[in-house]
Each structure stands twice: as structure tokens, then as C-alpha cells.
Write a structure and sequence with these properties.
GO molecular function, one term: pyridoxal phosphate binding
Function: Specifically catalyzes the decarboxylation of meso-diaminopimelate (meso-DAP) to L-lysine.
Structural class: alpha/beta
CATH class of the largest domain: Alpha Beta
Strand content: 15-25%
CATH superfamily of the largest domain: Alanine racemase
CATH architecture of the largest domain: Alpha-Beta Barrel
Family: Belongs to the Orn/Lys/Arg decarboxylase class-II family. LysA subfamily.
Subunit structure: Homodimer.
Pathway: Amino-acid biosynthesis; L-lysine biosynthesis via DAP pathway; L-lysine from DL-2,6-diaminopimelate: step 1/1
Number of strands: 18
CATH topology of the largest domain: TIM Barrel
């Protein structure tokens, strides 16, 4: 999108506001499918948790995507968006057996990562095929909070516990129709990913009724100029060749599945905010904006970088600013950033705001969550209205404290 288009959206709708570029989402989806075009059966299941607006889900459905869900509510949202149950995979962690059974009753694919739950589910529902999430004990990801395949992770069933899985399968007579892994986000070295894939292939040989192998995702996108990213094209070439060889060895054309989230939507997102004040101290110039970590928590949560651009003054001279929010704790979005000169009232644009930004927004400090806009076919479509004070109060119940408890009468 052009900066003048973003500026007009901020002027028309106010700030803060999230804006997503549908064309970028479509191009990222095509880039991934092109990278694996040599695979006979490829299935991309968009990770709903990255950005769960129903219009975004409908866009992915139009592209031919399935969806990866982690809660029963995301399953229901997918169904509401028009996905059929067989286009939805349910990959929770630490949920109750009741929630998994509820998802199974809806007809979606089930992915289990816990031996106890696997045995309970298989005992009660031996005729429902399930996928198993394996922990390959491979460390990948740019931050400890988003690296989920290492030995101390809460996710997945350890590869060292494969004999236990086989015992459960034999005892319950359940069918395992898929094997899955997810090593973590921001994968840089594709050789590490390929190494983990070999572990998954070896595991898959233990199960004779597979329909698919799910390699998770975690592909890194660039966050600033010159930043490194996952080489999807090289990974596609190498993994496709290895996958095709494995299918020949297995004796069946399996589906190669991925569950990308950030890779598909991160770069599409722009978060627009207004500068409330420029505050200079003895050592720092602060640009204080009309938002905070209640709207975009990633920089505070795990140190993510978002380029910040002054779209109100794109040709101004650069100065150093520390961009901060209005929350009554420290919420710094960028320290000493080179940004075109900022004046009060300017609109700043945070880049890479499509994934895990609005989806992790909250009403902290009783602030409203912002509107969401999809730029599609050269037009701005509001896909979520900004909240109002009625939304803050909607589910609260006020007790009437004016009525005092009457003292008991004595005779």
C-alpha cells in the first residue's frame, strides 16, 4: 500500500487503526505454494491465532487454504467463515478432553500432543482418526518464548516416547492419520528445519495409515531493510524432493501440510497511530502516541522489531526518537529510532503489524481496541469497528451497594 492511502485511512477513521493489505497476503500465499509446486499433494492451513478476523479467514478460504486452530472458539470461527470441517485441523495444547471431544463432534481433524489425552481419546473414540504432534527435540526460533520444539517444551510428545504411542495405538485400535511437528518461529537455518524433518520421516515409518505429514511452520519474515528471512524457495526445493522420495518409500502419495501464520500475514499489516506529544528530556526525545502495549504487545513481550515510519512527513529530515505509548507502565516501541522529523498530530506507521498484533490486543487501562481495515481491490473495507465504552461495560454487572443489609430485630 502507498503511504498516502494509509494516511487517508487514518484521517477518515481516526487512530489507532490496523490496516491489512490483501494483495500482500495473496502474494505470500502464492510464494509458498510456488515453492512446493513439485509436491503432488500440498495443503496450507493458515494459523488462525496470528490474525483471526473473519474477513481474513474468508480471504484465505478464497485462496484454497485450510486453517489450523488451537481453541474450540477458533474452530467455530472457521466454520462461521465457511470452512468445511475437513478443512480445519485442531491443534490445541493443554486443553481438556471435553474440548477435544467437542471439536471431534464437529468433524474437524484432531491433533493430539499428550500421551494421557491420546489414551483417553483413543479408548473412548477408537474410530476417530487423529494426528500426533511430535516434539523432535530440535531448538529453533528467534526467542525462547516462540521456540517450541526443544526438549523442555510443553508442546508435543517426545520422540523418545514413540514406544508409548505405539502401545496406546495397539491397545485402543485407534488410527493415526497424521504426524506433525512445530519447532518454533523465526526459523533462520533451513538445515536445522530439514534435520527436524528427517526425525519426522523416521517417526512416520512407524505408522502405516498416514494421510499427511504436517511440518508446522515458523518461517521468518524480514522486519527491516536488509533483514534475513527464511529461504522458502531453497527449502521448498530440498524438502519437496525429500518428501517425494519418502512417499515412494512409504508406498503412498501423502499430503505435505504446513500451518503458516506470520509468514502469510505479518508483512501485510500496518498499525497507524497519532503522536499526542513530543517530549524532550535531558537525554531523549520521546514521541508519545495514542496507543500502547494494550494494542501491540510484541515489542514488550519478546523484543520484536517493527519499523516505524512518519507517513505525515515522509521527506522530512531524520532525527532520533524513542517512541512510547500511553500505558502506565513502560511500553517502549522503539529506542532512538531514526525517523523523519515528528510533530504533534503526525501519523506514524508500524510495519509488520499483521501477525500477533491485534490478536493479542486487550482492554488494559480500560482502553478500547482499535478498528481493523482490509485494503482490497483498491478500497478500504472496515472489517472490525473500533470499540466504544458500551463494549467495555457490555459483560460487566454492577451491584447496587446503596441497599444496606437490615439489622435483625431483637425481641
Amino acid at each position: 500500500m502507498l503511504e498516502n492511502q494509509l494516511l487517508k485511512i487514518a484521517q477518515d477513521l481516526g487512530s489507532p487503526v490496523y490496516v491489512y493489505d490483501a494483495a500482500k497476503i495473496e502474494s505470500q500465499y502464492k510464494r509458498l505454494t510456488d515453492a512446493f509446486k513439485d509436491v503432488k499433494k500440498l495443503k496450507l492451513n493458515y494459523a488462525v491465532k496470528a490474525l483471526s478476523n473473519i474477513s481474513i479467514l474468508k480471504l484465505f478460504k478464497s485462496l484454497g487454504s485450510g486453517i489450523d486452530t488451537v481453541s474450540i472458539q477458533e474452530v467455530q470461527l472457521g466454520l462461521a467463515a465457511g470452512f468445511s470441517p475437513d478443512q480445519i485441523i485442531f491443534t490445541p495444547n493443554g486443553v481438556s478432553l471435553d474440548e477435544i471431544e467437542e471439536a471431534a463432534q464437529l468433524g474437524v481433524k484432531i491433533n493430539i500432543d499428550n500421551l494421557s489425552i491420546l489414551e483417553q481419546f483413543g479408548t473412548k473414540h477408537p474410530n476417530v482418526p487423529v494426528c500426533i504432534r511430535i516434539n523432535p527435540h530440535v531448538m529453533a526460533g528467534g526467542n525462547a518464548n516462540i521456540s517450541v520444539g526443544h526438549i523442555d517444551s510443553k508442546f508435543g510428545i517426545s520422540i523418545h516416547q514413540i514406544p508409548h504411542i505405539l502401545r496406546i495405538v495397539e491397545n485402543t485400535k485407534m488410527t493415526i492419520n497424521g504426524i506433525h511437528m512445530h519447532t518454533g518461529s523465526d526459523i533462520l537455518d533451513i538445515e536445522v528445519f530439514l534435520y527436524a524433518s528427517e526425525i519426522l520421516f523416521e517417526t512416520a515409518k512407524q505408522f502405516k495409515n498416514l494421510d499427511f505429514i504436517d511440518f508446522g511452520s515458523g518461517f521468518k519474515v524480514p522486519y527491516k531493510a536488509g533483514d534475513i528471512e527464511t529461504n522458502i524457495e531453497e527449502l521448498g526445493k530440498k524438502l519437496s524432493s525429500r518428501f517425494n522420495d519418502f512417499c515412494k518409500e512409504y508406498g503412498k502419495d501423502l499430503t505435505l501440510a504446513f500451518e503458516p501464520g506470520k509468514f502469510l500475514v505479518s508483512e501485510s499489516g500496518n498499525f497507524l497511530v497519532k503522536v499526542n506529544a513530543v517530549k524532550q528530556t535531558t537525554s531523549t526525545v520521546f514521541a508519545q502516541i495514542d496507543s500502547g502495549f494494550n494494542h501491540l504487545i510484541r515489542p514488550m513481550f519478546y523484543g520484536s522489531h517493527h519499523d516505524i515510519v512518519n507517513i505525515s512527513n515522509p521527506s522530512g529530515r531524520e532525527r532520533f526518537y524513542t517512541v512510547v505509548g500511553y500505558i502506565c507502565e513502560t511500553d517502549t516501541f522503539g529506542n532512538n529510532r531514526r525517523i523523519n522529523e515528528i510533530t504533534e498530530g503526525d501519523i506514524l506507521c508500524f510495519k509488520n503489524a499483521g501477525a500477533y498484533c491485534f490478536s493479542m490486543a486487550s482492554n488494559y487501562n480500560s482502553r478500547f481496541r482499535p478498528a481493523e481495515v482490509l485494503w482490497y481491490n483498491d478500497k478500504a473495507h472496515v472489517i472490525r469497528k473500533a470499540e466504544t465504552f458500551d463494549d467495555i461495560l457490555r459483560n460487566q454487572i454492577a451491584i447496587d451497594f446503596s441497599k444496606k443489609k437490615e439489622k435483625p430485630t431483637t425481641v
